[in-house]
Structures are given as structure tokens and as C-alpha cells.
Amino acid sequence: MVAAPLVTIVTPSFNQAAYLPQTMQSVFDQSYPHIEYIVVDGGSQDGSREIIISHAQRLAWWVSEADHGQTDAINKGFARSTGRYLAWLNADDVLHPHAVAEAVAYLEEHPQTGLVYGDAEYIDATGRVVGRFPAAQTDYARLRRGYVHIPQQAAFWRADLWRQVGPLDPSFVFAMDYDLWVRLAKISRIQYLPRLWARFRLHADSKTIQNDQRAWDEMLRVHWREGGGWLAPIVAKYWLRRLVAPLIHARRRRMLAK
């Protein structure tokens, strides 16, 4: 009997003690049993280290030490990974119990697919559902036009492809996931499945609320790297986004205030 493939999940964390227990528990509660879970903490001083230590026996590896930010922490975790499939779950997000099992089943049945992703709900600091991420099918050409629609929390990909295109660009703070999606889509098929796999937490301290315009700045860096020009749709979207950013931020804050 062929053994079920191992899945590596990395959680980067820094001063997220308020949310980290729920994030970790959502990995422990997965219906899929073959998970290598790695937690990389950036030297938190809010009790996160103690939370991690309390679960250390269930972790494949963990560390709590100063690093160079989220992207560095993710790379550090994946450098220790041995799974056939990879994912990362930020320390304030949550997986639904059957996410890993359904992702593995699809990737095992569709070897031509390099990355599979599902749906994600938006939740607030208390865990209340406040919206839904606009996930949709995309590909390399559409990603290059700024049609992203991949919730990072609900994405799983092949480790052999990571070894071809990784690690994440350490100079990226916001759009390292978009950069990875572009690299993966350039060499493999990516597939959206309309199944609820994750919860994406929005709160006052989250990067998405504080300054997600920087994500678009970094997305343009990917565009230039891939040989894009000034007349491309993603450039127009970039300037439109800057124009309507105050409205987007106001809408998100209203979501959290309800």
C-alpha cells in the first residue's frame, strides 16, 4: 500500500499570541493525518514562544529568534520542509478541517496541476465572518494582468516546483505570494476549486488593513521583471487602485466595525 504523501505547513509568526493558538489548532485539527507542521517565530515578546513550546511535541520543527520579517521566516521554514506538498498559514489565519485532505486528493489525481487553491472567508479579530475573498480561476496570463484572486491561506503547491522557483524574494514584504503564484503559473497549471478551505483574518494590525497599497508596488516589480510594459493592464489597475484606495480601506474598516 502506497503511503499518503506528507504535507508541510509553515506558520510564520511575530507577536500574534492573540491568534496563534487558533491558527495552530486549525492545523492540528485537520482530517488529513500526514502533516509536517513548522512554526517560525521572529522572537516574539508577547507570549507566543510559550504557546509554541506548549505544542512543541506536535511540531516537526520550531524556532523563536530574530529574523528579517515574514518572508524570511517562511523561507526558513520551507528550508526545513520534507513534504511533497507545501503551504503556509499566517499566524492570524485559520484552515478549515478538510482543507489539506481535499487539496492533496486533487493534486494526487491531477499531476499536471502545480498549485491548487480554494475559497477563503474574511473574519475579524473575534473570528466573526465579515465577508468572502473573491477567489476565481486565474493563470499566468491573467496574473500578469493583475487578475490574482488566489487566497494565500487556501493555496497548496508541489514541493518539486518550489525547488525550481523558490525561495520567496526576501525583499518582498506584501506581494511575495503573488510573486510565487506568477513563478509557479509560468511553469505549471494552477487550479481553483470552489471549496471553503480557509479563513483570512482582518484586524487593525493586519498588513491588509494597514498598507496593502505596497502590495501593488511590489506586484509592479514582478511585472517589470517579467518583461512587462507601461501599457499593460496591471499598470492601469495599479494607478486606479491608488485612486480608489481610500474607498477600499473605508469599506474594509466598515466591515470590521459592524
Characterise this structure.
The chain is an alpha/beta fold and 258 residues long. It has one domain: Spore Coat Polysaccharide Biosynthesis Protein SpsA, Chain A, CATH 3.90.550.10. Helices cover 40% and strands 22% of the residues. It has 10 helices and 9 strands. Strands 1, 2, 3, 4, 5, 6, 7, 8 and 9 form a 9-stranded mixed β-sheet that branches. Helix 9 runs antiparallel to helix 10. The radius of gyration is 18 Å and the shape is globular. 40% of the residues are buried.
List keywords for this structure.
258 residues; alpha/beta; Spore Coat Polysaccharide Biosynthesis Protein SpsA, Chain A; nine-stranded mixed beta sheet; 10 helices; 9 strands; 22% strand; globular
Quick overview:
This protein is an alpha/beta fold and 258 residues long.
Based on CA atoms alone, the radius of gyration comes out at 18 Å
Q: What is the CATH C-level name?
A: Alpha Beta
Please name the CATH architecture. Answer: Alpha-Beta Complex
Strand count, sense and closure of the main sheet?
9 strands, mixed
Strand proportion, as a percent range, falls in: 15-25%
Shape: globular
Helical proportion, percent range: 40-55%
Task: Note the topology.
Elements (H helix, E strand, L loop, with lengths): L6 E7 L6 H9 L6 E7 L6 H7 L6 E4 L5 H10 L5 E4 L5 E2 L3 H11 L3 E11 L5 E4 L7 H5 L10 E4 H7 L10 H12 L1 E13 L5 H5 L1 H13 L7 H25 L1
Helix pairs in contact: 9-10
